[in-house]
Write a structure and sequence with these properties.
Blueprint: H1 7-27, E1 35-38, H2 46-59, H3 62-67, E2 68-71, H4 79-89, E3 93-96, H5 97-102, H6 109-121, E4 129-132, H7 150-163, E5 169-172, H8 177-192
Parallel strand pairs: 1-2, 2-3, 3-4, 4-5
Length: 196
Amino acid sequence: VLSNPKDDVFVWLLRYGEYHRRLFTAMGLDRRAKVVVHVGGSYKDPERALIQAERNFARLDPWLQRRLVLENDDRSFTARQVLSLATRLGVPMVFDYHHHAVHNEGESEAELEGLIGQAFATWTDRPPKVHLSSPKSAAQPRAHADYVDWQFALPFFRLVERIGPERLDVMVEAKRKDLAALALRETYQREIGAVD
Protein backbone atom coordinates (compact mmCIF):
# COMPACT_ATOMS: atom_id res chain seq x y z
CA VAL A 1 0.00 0.00 0.00
CA LEU A 2 2.91 2.34 0.59
CA SER A 3 3.73 2.51 -3.14
CA ASN A 4 0.18 3.32 -4.26
CA PRO A 5 -0.05 6.72 -5.99
CA LYS A 6 -3.77 7.20 -5.27
CA ASP A 7 -4.72 9.66 -2.55
CA ASP A 8 -7.69 7.58 -1.35
CA VAL A 9 -5.38 4.63 -0.69
CA PHE A 10 -2.98 6.89 1.21
CA VAL A 11 -5.90 8.16 3.31
CA TRP A 12 -6.74 4.51 4.06
CA LEU A 13 -3.13 3.99 5.21
CA LEU A 14 -3.40 7.01 7.51
CA ARG A 15 -6.59 5.56 9.01
CA TYR A 16 -4.90 2.18 9.36
CA GLY A 17 -2.08 3.87 11.26
CA GLU A 18 -4.51 5.75 13.50
CA TYR A 19 -6.37 2.52 14.25
CA HIS A 20 -3.10 0.93 15.36
CA ARG A 21 -2.17 3.97 17.43
CA ARG A 22 -5.45 3.68 19.37
CA LEU A 23 -5.12 -0.10 19.67
CA PHE A 24 -1.51 0.03 20.88
CA THR A 25 -2.36 2.80 23.35
CA ALA A 26 -5.35 0.87 24.72
CA MET A 27 -3.14 -2.20 25.13
CA GLY A 28 -0.36 -0.21 26.80
CA LEU A 29 2.21 -1.24 24.17
CA ASP A 30 5.49 0.62 23.92
CA ARG A 31 7.51 1.70 20.87
CA ARG A 32 8.56 -1.88 20.16
CA ALA A 33 5.05 -2.71 18.91
CA LYS A 34 5.16 -2.64 15.11
CA VAL A 35 2.84 -2.39 12.11
CA VAL A 36 3.89 -4.70 9.25
CA VAL A 37 2.95 -3.83 5.66
CA HIS A 38 3.96 -4.86 2.17
CA VAL A 39 5.43 -2.11 0.02
CA GLY A 40 2.50 -2.49 -2.39
CA GLY A 41 2.18 -2.88 -6.14
CA SER A 42 4.91 -2.12 -8.63
CA TYR A 43 2.43 -0.80 -11.22
CA LYS A 44 4.64 -2.01 -14.11
CA ASP A 45 7.39 0.39 -13.01
CA PRO A 46 9.10 -0.88 -9.82
CA GLU A 47 11.59 1.99 -9.56
CA ARG A 48 8.86 4.60 -9.80
CA ALA A 49 6.73 2.66 -7.29
CA LEU A 50 9.64 2.59 -4.82
CA ILE A 51 10.05 6.36 -5.20
CA GLN A 52 6.32 6.75 -4.52
CA ALA A 53 6.70 4.56 -1.43
CA GLU A 54 9.43 6.88 -0.13
CA ARG A 55 7.24 9.93 -0.80
CA ASN A 56 4.27 8.38 0.97
CA PHE A 57 6.43 7.35 3.92
CA ALA A 58 7.58 10.97 4.30
CA ARG A 59 3.89 12.02 4.52
CA LEU A 60 3.08 9.58 7.32
CA ASP A 61 2.56 10.62 10.90
CA PRO A 62 5.85 10.25 12.84
CA TRP A 63 4.16 7.77 15.19
CA LEU A 64 3.50 5.40 12.28
CA GLN A 65 6.92 6.04 10.73
CA ARG A 66 8.55 4.83 13.95
CA ARG A 67 6.47 1.66 14.02
CA LEU A 68 6.28 0.71 10.35
CA VAL A 69 7.94 -2.52 9.23
CA LEU A 70 8.24 -3.60 5.60
CA GLU A 71 7.86 -7.18 4.36
CA ASN A 72 8.95 -8.72 1.08
CA ASP A 73 6.05 -10.09 -0.95
CA ASP A 74 5.38 -12.85 -3.43
CA ARG A 75 4.72 -10.77 -6.56
CA SER A 76 5.91 -7.16 -6.60
CA PHE A 77 9.05 -6.57 -4.55
CA THR A 78 11.81 -9.02 -3.70
CA ALA A 79 13.55 -9.21 -0.35
CA ARG A 80 16.55 -7.35 -1.80
CA GLN A 81 14.35 -4.49 -3.05
CA VAL A 82 12.46 -4.25 0.24
CA LEU A 83 15.69 -4.35 2.25
CA SER A 84 17.06 -1.47 0.18
CA LEU A 85 13.90 0.58 0.77
CA ALA A 86 13.75 -0.30 4.48
CA THR A 87 17.38 0.76 4.87
CA ARG A 88 16.75 4.09 3.13
CA LEU A 89 13.70 4.72 5.32
CA GLY A 90 15.38 3.54 8.51
CA VAL A 91 12.70 0.95 9.30
CA PRO A 92 12.96 -2.79 10.05
CA MET A 93 12.27 -5.49 7.50
CA VAL A 94 10.37 -8.73 8.09
CA PHE A 95 11.92 -11.47 5.96
CA ASP A 96 9.24 -13.81 4.58
CA TYR A 97 10.91 -17.07 3.53
CA HIS A 98 7.95 -18.42 1.54
CA HIS A 99 7.59 -15.15 -0.37
CA HIS A 100 11.31 -15.21 -1.08
CA ALA A 101 11.08 -18.79 -2.37
CA VAL A 102 8.49 -17.81 -5.00
CA HIS A 103 9.75 -14.29 -5.80
CA ASN A 104 13.49 -13.68 -5.66
CA GLU A 105 16.48 -12.52 -7.68
CA GLY A 106 18.15 -15.93 -7.95
CA GLU A 107 20.40 -15.39 -4.93
CA SER A 108 22.96 -18.05 -4.13
CA GLU A 109 22.94 -19.56 -0.64
CA ALA A 110 25.78 -17.24 0.40
CA GLU A 111 23.96 -14.21 -1.01
CA LEU A 112 20.76 -15.26 0.75
CA GLU A 113 22.64 -15.63 4.03
CA GLY A 114 23.98 -12.09 3.63
CA LEU A 115 20.55 -10.76 2.69
CA ILE A 116 18.88 -12.34 5.71
CA GLY A 117 21.68 -11.10 7.97
CA GLN A 118 21.19 -7.56 6.67
CA ALA A 119 17.42 -7.81 7.18
CA PHE A 120 18.01 -8.96 10.76
CA ALA A 121 20.34 -5.99 11.32
CA THR A 122 17.47 -3.58 10.60
CA TRP A 123 15.94 -4.61 13.93
CA THR A 124 17.48 -2.46 16.66
CA ASP A 125 14.95 -2.50 19.50
CA ARG A 126 13.72 -6.09 19.51
CA PRO A 127 14.58 -9.50 18.03
CA PRO A 128 14.24 -9.81 14.25
CA LYS A 129 10.88 -11.03 13.01
CA VAL A 130 10.35 -13.49 10.17
CA HIS A 131 7.26 -14.90 8.52
CA LEU A 132 7.20 -18.59 7.78
CA SER A 133 4.85 -20.68 5.69
CA SER A 134 5.17 -23.17 2.87
CA PRO A 135 3.42 -23.63 -0.48
CA LYS A 136 0.04 -25.31 -0.56
CA SER A 137 1.09 -27.35 -3.59
CA ALA A 138 3.31 -27.28 -6.68
CA ALA A 139 0.29 -26.06 -8.64
CA GLN A 140 -0.33 -23.26 -6.10
CA PRO A 141 3.16 -22.23 -4.95
CA ARG A 142 2.06 -18.83 -3.60
CA ALA A 143 -0.87 -20.14 -1.54
CA HIS A 144 -0.18 -21.00 2.11
CA ALA A 145 -0.46 -24.63 3.18
CA ASP A 146 -2.44 -25.69 6.24
CA TYR A 147 0.80 -26.56 8.04
CA VAL A 148 4.44 -25.61 7.45
CA ASP A 149 6.40 -28.29 5.61
CA TRP A 150 9.37 -28.58 7.95
CA GLN A 151 11.64 -29.81 5.15
CA PHE A 152 10.77 -26.71 3.11
CA ALA A 153 11.68 -24.52 6.09
CA LEU A 154 14.79 -26.42 7.20
CA PRO A 155 17.23 -24.66 4.79
CA PHE A 156 16.02 -21.34 6.17
CA PHE A 157 16.61 -22.41 9.76
CA ARG A 158 20.08 -23.69 8.83
CA LEU A 159 20.91 -20.25 7.42
CA VAL A 160 19.54 -18.57 10.54
CA GLU A 161 21.68 -20.88 12.66
CA ARG A 162 24.79 -19.68 10.79
CA ILE A 163 23.77 -16.02 11.00
CA GLY A 164 23.30 -16.46 14.72
CA PRO A 165 20.80 -13.97 16.13
CA GLU A 166 20.41 -14.54 19.84
CA ARG A 167 16.62 -14.59 19.48
CA LEU A 168 14.25 -14.66 16.54
CA ASP A 169 10.48 -14.10 16.43
CA VAL A 170 8.90 -16.50 13.94
CA MET A 171 5.33 -15.84 12.87
CA VAL A 172 3.83 -18.96 11.32
CA GLU A 173 1.48 -17.95 8.51
CA ALA A 174 -0.17 -21.30 7.86
CA LYS A 175 -3.89 -21.85 7.46
CA ARG A 176 -4.13 -23.89 10.68
CA LYS A 177 -2.65 -20.97 12.68
CA ASP A 178 -1.54 -21.95 16.22
CA LEU A 179 -1.95 -25.65 15.48
CA ALA A 180 0.54 -25.27 12.64
CA ALA A 181 3.00 -23.41 14.88
CA LEU A 182 2.80 -26.09 17.57
CA ALA A 183 3.13 -28.88 15.00
CA LEU A 184 6.21 -27.23 13.50
CA ARG A 185 7.79 -26.85 16.93
CA GLU A 186 7.12 -30.50 17.78
CA THR A 187 8.50 -31.69 14.45
CA TYR A 188 11.73 -29.72 14.81
CA GLN A 189 12.21 -30.91 18.38
CA ARG A 190 11.72 -34.49 17.23
CA GLU A 191 13.80 -34.26 14.03
CA ILE A 192 16.69 -32.00 15.04
CA GLY A 193 16.31 -31.59 18.78
CA ALA A 194 16.12 -27.79 18.79
CA VAL A 195 13.60 -24.98 18.96
CA ASP A 196 12.90 -22.68 21.84
